[in-house]
Amino acid sequence: SGHVQLPPPQNVTLVSKDFDMILTWTPGEGSSPNVTYTVRYESQERMGKWIKVPHCKNIHRTSCNLTCVFPNLFVKVRARVKAVSGGFQSPWVESQFKEYHLDVELAPPVLNVNVKENLIHVNASFPLATCVESLLWMYDLNLWKAGSTHKKQYEGNFRKDTVTINTTALTGNYCLSARSSFQSIDFKHSKFSPPVCVLLNHKG
User: Fold this and answer.
1) Residue limits of the Fibronectin type-III domain (predicted)?
2) Residue 33 belongs to domain with CATH number
């Protein structure tokens, strides 16, 4: 029919990163700079029904955050993307199936450390999208004396919990680090956060 097709997006991948589920792609070979992209998704609950994603219609960027788009975090989903320019469009290109609950990759939490006279209060903040805040995110906390390999572990703290550590018997430079954890089929963990170090009971 002499119909001109745009080059399709490449490397279409549903990636889980830092608690989010994001569709990423690269422009098709020889794409012009004014190409836009449109994304849809399909869940295994309703195969064959591709659902529009309003915030990823005719976008210039090459990613789409789908975290809070899926109504069910416990069902496998996949997404597809096409390029559009002028009156032309490319074929759709589909990602693989992923399930948020099973495939989520965790980021380390950010520690907030508050030193009182004989106590340290520690809490952790997570870069969570609102729709996944209700899941049972936890964190494990390590405390060690700088230079020592022996770590005291405080495991399985709920996300909003504050860990309080009595420091009466501790002197010197102590470090704290935490990792996010989450139970799906087995326990998943993030890497540990960069250490936060504090000087305790320093008689100066």
Assistant:
1) 8-103
2) 2.60.40.10
pTM: predicted TM-score of the whole model, two decimal places: 0.84
How far, CA to CA in Å, does 19 sit from each of 9, 103, 153? 25, 10, 24
The answer to whether residue 104 sits within a structural domain is no
Average pLDDT of the chain, as a whole number: 93
Q: Is the pLDDT of residue 3 over 80?
A: no
Q: Which residues does 160 contact at the CB level (< 8 Å), separation at least 6?
A: 123
| Helix or strand holding residue 110 (H, E) | strand 110-115
Identify the three-state secondary structure at position 80: strand
Q: Cα separation of 199 and 181, whole Å? A: 28
- CB-side exposure of 174: number of CA atoms within 13 Å? 23
Q: Which residue has the tokens 């009971």?
A: 201
Domain-located, residue 1: no
Sign of the CA dihedral 164, 168, 169, 175? positive
Q: Give CA–CA dist 76/99, Å, rounded.
A: 4
β-strand pairing of 88-89 with 77-85: antiparallel
% of the chain at pLDDT higher than 70? 97
Query: What average pLDDT does range 191-199 have in this prediction?
Result: 96
